[in-house]
Design brief:
- The complex is a heterodimer of chains A (about 675) and B (about 325).
- Chain A is α+β, with helices and mostly antiparallel strands and about 675 residues long.
- Chain A contains 26 helices and 18 strands.
- In chain A, helix 2 runs antiparallel to helix 7 and helix 11 crosses helix 14.
- Helix content of chain B is about 30%, strand content about 30%.
- In chain B, the strands form five sheets. A five-stranded antiparallel β-sheet of chain B has the order 2-11-10-6-7. Chain B has a four-stranded antiparallel β-sheet with strand order 1-3-5-8, with no helix packed on it. Chain B has a three-stranded mixed β-sheet with strand order 4-12-9.
- Classes of the chains: A alpha+beta (about 675), B alpha+beta (about 325).
- At the A-B interface, helix 6, helix 7, helix 8, helix 21 and helix 22 of A face helix 2, helix 3 and strand 6 of B.
Chain lengths: ~675, ~325
């Protein structure tokens, strides 16, 4: 019974594998779109899948084929909805979505080889739209897999019905792919890179990337903690500062409406003042694209690149939202005094309180001010309160809805995350008459021992406060440090109570997993710096290092073309292997040819039609004295060539005889 | 008919053909496609994919997207290599032609063609097309040779030389069209088109087929056994004698000479034009053969005594095919 089952499984397998070229086209399209399906709105992904599935059905049941007018009815509203959702048809997401839907519709108008090939070509285009969202190493691995499938599709479209089995098809496609890789690498390195875009990129409401937002509402930082995505990477030039000093500032929030902290109106303070600077650190940050204009700097940046805007709140801004991997180098001072004199704008904004909300907090602040009078003491008193009273640090605090959220937190729930502590602390300070503001950014980071690169992830998002004290300027106060000091000194994981539900990435943070993550992170970082970030500047640096001199544009073009042609030639030679035909000839034949050449030099030329034995007889008649050697060579040759079991020993003998064979002069 | 080469205007195609015809191989019954006679151009699909590549490259430059560059270059490299593979798919291919069986004018002549490679390898989607004919496709998957029958339309009686062949392939990716023109030497004997089977009586001075009844009822007398000669009908095989002697023997019959059929040029209406006449004679020969009759054959230039059998028929038809032409 066994062969029968294997035959039926084979049958099943061959039924599952794509047979019709259109199967391959649908498979290619689905694979190319697949990374998008999670990004697109659910209705769009469902539509694309349904269109592909329907085409598969209508291939077997032509009655079900969609008519042209039906396709138009599907297409027009889809385009309208895309336009209404994204405000454009050509932005990053809108464009990819529109293209994907159009291709899925085109599947239904796809009957000839020409259509198949067009669809395969456009699938290549869809792969590129994936790169607008992710350029990670995994994406490239997926791209190679996809290209393999696309090549196999092209083969099956063009094989004219040849019964090439799947294995041969796969081998051929992977051979093509492997042969192309060196050429691709060469072009990638040498193709002249241009700095700056050719035309203005279409504006689109930027899609939300997981990351900080420009306001703080209870719950929005603790939701970030769920993400293990990289925010940015840092390479310090010298020693890495201690964990508790790693405050990466990005935003300063002044305005509070009772629930949400926002940046408020433009800060009119004339110029940032910084004094008593010490403990410098210089570092380079590689920022993952976040589609925002703000950058991150270690408290407090003092030397910044000239093309960045440096605000009076010691923040860094770019001119355009960061949509590519972005690298910049900063020097910060870990000891500093900022704004020793408070500007009128800062004073009014730093003391502004919405009086209608949170009355209990306001009363508490007033009372503290009356009791302790000195600002330092008030600060300390509130920190003590967090530390000693029944406050809890948790990722999942009970909700505090409405505009009295601070009152609810301070006097009822008493369970909160950094945003609760920072927000309520700043409000209390303002109520007590101390100017205060909230700062958003990241705190800490994971140092990879393999490459000394620190990775700051979304889970390191943090909120803290700055209060203005007479004679000290704006001083950083992190209320979280008094409720959960481990958060600041080591990690969030250490700060949370053991019973707390942790995000998945923290649960997996065991020994081996951690080690592997470090390796992966180091590779990812290399990839980002050398491949994703390979631009005009990096290309120039690389070529300079290779050739010890600057390479001009025209030299680069010549280098690229000649390098390409040489590599192509080598690969073509490896494919064609023109030398193979000579080595293919039987060594026995070669030896016999040598023997014939020796005779030919003395006028004994073997005719085309003459068999070896006839030739032997003729040769013996002409050279009777060498009858023995001629007949022996001929006999060995015929035996080696035509006998069923030629022996290695006989070949040796033939070799010796032929090389020892001489035509004696006297007889010729 | 659609243009033979992709993407080219007719005038340019004609120029290329003229140029290539000066580079054709010397006619012989076999030919090997080599680099000098193998041409390659992108197909329209190739141009489509190339356009998409350019769009991707433009996007990559604009968005400074490294992976976009990478994909564009990968596509470019694949394109170049697919050109090499397409070229290799038919380079060094050997074509050997055998003589085709004769056909009647208007039928398709089938030229037996052997495609082979010295080294075994995969050569799918090899296409051969006779000028003005349909392409036929052959796949060499893990063999070194394959036999195909190349259909060529016939119009005129006589020896028809095989038209110039175009061998082409677009495998593996369909982005390039590699082709070679090959002139082989082979002829197909084309018999005249037989006239319709029900001949109007007025065309013949006597009705030759009228004698059919007397022939079929007439009893042939067994006259003896002779050595088999090509053309003897299989029904006349003397099986007992063959079994005894081990040699092929035929039974010999004498038939009444008055019942014998004469297919003669002169027996037809003298007003008939030559081609029409040949066509009618052709029909007569076929019918006589099909009925197993013996017939003598007599046209100007050829005169055959009464006989029957395949060989006799072929001789008669050949004489009709070549009537008035120089034998090749």
């Amino acid at each position: 019974m066994k062969p029968r089952t294997s035959a039926s499984t084979q049958q099943l397998l061959s039924r599952l594998l794509p047979r019709h070229p259109l199967h391959w086209v649908i498979l290619s399209l689905l694979l190319a779109v697949s990374p998008h399906l999670l990004r697109f709105p659910a209705w769009a992904s469902a539509l694309i899948l349904a269109l592909c599935g329907w085409r598969l059905l209508s291939l077997s049941y032509p009655r079900l084929a969609l008519r042209q007018w039906m396709l138009i009815i599907i297409m027009l509203p889809t385009a309208a909805v895309i336009f209404l959702t994204y405000g454009t048809l050509f932005g990053k997401t809108a464009g990819s979505l529109l293209l994907s839907v159009l291709l899925a519709i085109k599947l239904h108008e796809c009957h000839k080889r020409r259509d198949y090939i067009l669809l395969i070509g456009l699938s290549f285009f869809i792969i590129v739209t994936n790169f607008l969202f992710s350029q990670s190493l995994l994406t490239v691995a997926f791209m190679l897999l996809l290209v393999q499938v696309l090549i196999m599709s092209l083969i099956s479209i063009n094989d004219e019905g040849a019964q090439i089995d799947l294995k041969q098809r796969t081998t051929l496609a992977s051979r093509l792919l492997l042969q192309s890789l060196p050429l691709m690498l060469l072009l990638f390195v040498l193709f002249p890179r241009i700095s700056g875009p050719l035309w203005k990129l279409p504006e689109e409401q930027q899609t939300a990337v997981t990351g900080l937002s420009d306001s703080m509402t209870p719950g929005n930082i603790s939701s970030l903690i769920q993400s293990n995505a990289v925010a940015f990477r840092v390479e310090f030039e010298s020693e890495t500062p201690p964990q508790k000093q790693l405050y990466w500032r990005a935003l300063v929030l002044w305005y509070f409406d009772g629930r949400t902290w926002e940046q408020g109106k433009t800060n009119l303070t004339p110029w940032p003042q910084i004094e008593a600077i010490d403990d410098y650190v210089t570092y380079t940050i590689t920022l993952e694209p976040h589609n925002e204009k703000w950058l991150y700097g270690l408290d407090m940046p003092v030397e910044v690149p000239s093309d960045l805007r440096y605000t009076n709140e010691f923040l860094l801004r770019t001119r355009k939202p960061v949509s590519h991997l972005y690298q910049y180098t900063l020097t910060s001072a870990l000891s500093y005094q900022i704004q020793p004199t408070l500007s009128p704008w800062e004073k009014s904004a730093g003391l502004n309180i919405p009086t209608v909300n949170n009355p209990e907090t306001f009363a508490l602040g007033q009372q503290l001010a009356k009791t302790y009078q000195q600002p330092r003491k008030i600060v300390q008193q509130v920190l003590n309160m967090f530390n000693q009273q029944n406050f809890h640090y948790t990722l999942n605090p009970p909700p505090t809805p409405g505009f009295d959220s601070v009152d609810q937190f301070l006097f009822e729930t008493r369970k909160g995350f950094c945003e609760h502590y920072a927000g309520s602390f700043a409000l209390l300070m303002r109520a007590a008459g101390i100017p205060a503001r909230v700062v958003l950014g990241y705190q800490g980071g994971t140092l990879n021992p393999l490459n000394r690169v620190m990775t700051v992830r979304q889970k390191d998002a943090h909120a803290w406060t700055e209060v203005w004290l007479d004679g000290e300027g704006w001083v950083r106060i992190d209320p979280t440090a008094s409720i959960a000091p481990q958060r600041i000194e080591t990690s969030l994981d250490a700060a949370l109570s053991p019973e707390e539900d942790r995000p998945l990435h923290m649960q997996m943070n065991s020994g081996l997993m951690r080690e592997l993550m470090f390796y992966w992170d180091a590779i990812d970082n290399r990839w980002n710096q050398w491949v994703v970030g390979y631009d005009h500047q990096l290309q120039q640096d690389f070529l300079k290092a290779m050739f010890n001199q600057d390479v001009s544009f025209s030299d680069l073009v010549i280098l690229m073309v000649s390098g390409f042609l040489i590599t192509l030639l080598i690969i073509v030679l490896l494919i064609v292997r023109p030398w193979r035909s000579t080595t293919d000839v039987d060594p026995v034949v070669r030896l016999y040819q040598r023997f014939c050449q020796k005779l030919a030099r003395h006028g004994l030329i073997r005719e085309q039609h003459e068999g070896p034995i006839d030739f032997c007889q003729r040769a013996v008649r002409t050279l009777p004295e060498q009858k023995d050697s001629i007949t022996l060579i001929t006999r060995l040759y015929t035996r080696l060539r035509y006998a069923p079991d030629p022996q290695e020993r006989q070949l040796q003998q033939l070799r010796q005889l032929v090389s020892g064979f001489r035509v004696s002069k006297g007889n010729s | 008919m659609a243009s033979e080469l992709p993407l080219l205007p007719r005038s340019l195609e004609r120029l290329i053909k003229q140029w290539a015809s000066r580079r054709l191989n010397p006619p012989s019954s076999e030919a090997i496609i080599n680099r000098q006679r193998l041409y390659i151009l992108p197909t329209s699909h190739g141009v489509t994919i190339f356009t998409i590549l350019l769009l991707i490259l433009l996007g990559a430059i604009n968005y400074e997207n490294s992976l976009g560059y990478m994909l564009a270059f990968l596509m470019g490299a694949l394109g170049f290599l697919s050109m090499v593979h397409t070229h290799q798919n038919i380079n060094h291919m050997k074509l050997q032609l055998a003589n085709p069986r004769p056909v009647f004018a208007g039928q398709l002549a089938h030229f037996p063609l052997t495609l082979s490679f010295k080294r075994p390898g995969m050569h799918p989607a090899l296409q051969v097309q006779a000028e003005n004919g349909d392409a036929i496709c052959a796949h060499l998957l893990d063999d070194t040779a394959i036999d195909i029958m190349l259909p060529v339309a016939t119009h005129q009686r006589g020896y028809m030389p095989i038209p110039r062949l175009k061998i082409f392939s677009e495998f593996p990716l369909g982005l390039f069209h590699a082709w070679s023109w090959v002139q082989l030497e082979s002829h197909c004997l084309v018999y005249p088109t037989p006239a319709p089977s029900h001949l109007p009586v007025s065309h013949t001075s006597s009705d030759p087929l009228g004698q059919q009844s007397s022939e079929s009822t007439g009893v042939d007398e067994f006259a003896g056994i002779r050595k088999y000669q090509p053309g003897d009908p299989p029904s006349h095989m003397a099986w007992k004698a063959i079994a005894r002697t081990g040699e092929l023997q035929s039974k010999l019959f004498t038939s009444d000479s008055s019942n014998d059929l004469h297919i003669r040029w002169d027996s037809l209406n003298p007003g008939l034009d030559t081609e029409k006449r040949l066509s009618i004679l052709c029909r007569l020969v076929i019918d006589a053969h099909d009925h197993g009759l013996s017939y003598s054959f007599d046209i100007p230039g050829t005169s055959l005594p009464s006989a029957s059998g395949q060989h006799h028929r072929d001789l008669c038809l050949k004489a009709l095919a070549l009537f008035g032409t120089q034998p090749v």
